[in-house]
Amino acid sequence: MASRLEILFLVSLFSVLLTPLHCSVFDVTQYGAIGNGTTDDSPAFMLAWTDVCNSSASTPIFHIPGNKTFLLNPVFFQGPCRSTNIQFQIDGIITAESEPSNWKCTRNRCDKWIHFKRVDGLFINVTSSNKVQLTGLSFRNNPHMHVVFDSCDMVHISNVSIDAPGDSPNTDGIHLKESTHINIEFCSIRTGDDCISIVDKSSNITIQNIKCGPGHGISIGSMGQYGAYETVENIYVSDVQFKGSLGGVRIKTWQGGKGHARKMVFKGITSLNTQYPIQIDQFYCPHAKCDEQADAVEISDISYIDIKGTSMRKTAVKLACSESVPCKNISMQDINLSYQGTNASAYCKNVNGTSQGIMEPSVPCLYYQTP
């Protein structure tokens, strides 16, 4: 019996690009795919791929339409292709036989279900999908976001390698939006922007065993731009190493926004020459000047536990919160950060909370609890 949507990509991708406006769509149903969940649609997929790969369009789109379930045996998408800007758009369900022993394999390729090789400029966009698994992907020198999950549930990402220049803007490694029950683990990410970014309507995210740097760290947000109501909650981050990154663990929200960022734990973090190992910024403004506004995204119930290492700036901990909407229930335990072999410092404004254990630097606005 066919399994539910379980997309296991064992691939090596050279780069991933965002989608331009001008494109040509290749719908697999136009090549004979049935989409009833029982008919083998692999031949139709391969016919569609041949045309996509040979297309002279600037952005050929391999389209898997919605409201259908496509049964696939192992398929091998071989490059190089004419276009270096191919989009693989998944709107329907792709499924495989639940028992790999029943797979119909060609060229003895039963070790991989969906396999891409020598396909430059491939963008895999996963939207409105459940029970998705991405394993063993490698991305290199991509000029834009690498992996994007939008409106997805129950996603497992593991053993992903992302490598982009440290000075390349907007090259987020893994970007989550309106997605829930996400597990990210054992990934190595080097980018010019956020290693992992989590934005509006995302919740129940677990991030473990990550190496990040260069990059901007693991970021909640930005949130609340243009006065928007946005929420992020139930985030657990542990066993992460930041090396030479601009940020470590940070929460960034715009003035004038609404909503909340709450119920988050950052634990077991190692910072190696990170510019801002710990940061909350309710005044996020990447421009030269932003207007002051009273409204702000509420930030509460945030815990930092066992965070150690070195900071590239004297101020290793920066908690900049709004006077009208202060940060509440912020807790820190066993923080040990230094600056160039000397004591680091902390900046703290409009924050309510507690600290305990080793606190280097001490955070003056947090009430210290003696064990």
From TrEMBL:
The active site is at residue 216. Residues 1-23 form the signal peptide. The keyword Cell wall biogenesis/degradation applies. One of its GO terms (biological process) is cell wall organization. GO terms for molecular function: polygalacturonase activity. SUPFAM superfamilies: Pectin lyase-like. Keywords: Cell wall, Cell wall biogenesis/degradation, Glycosidase, Hydrolase, Secreted, Signal. Pfam families: Glyco_hydro_28. It is found in: Secreted, Cell wall. InterPro entries: Glyco_hydro_28, PbH1, Pectin_lyas_fold, Pectin_lyase_fold/virulence. Belongs to the glycosyl hydrolase 28 family. This is Polygalacturonase. The lineage of its organism: Eukaryota, Viridiplantae, Streptophyta, Embryophyta, Tracheophyta.
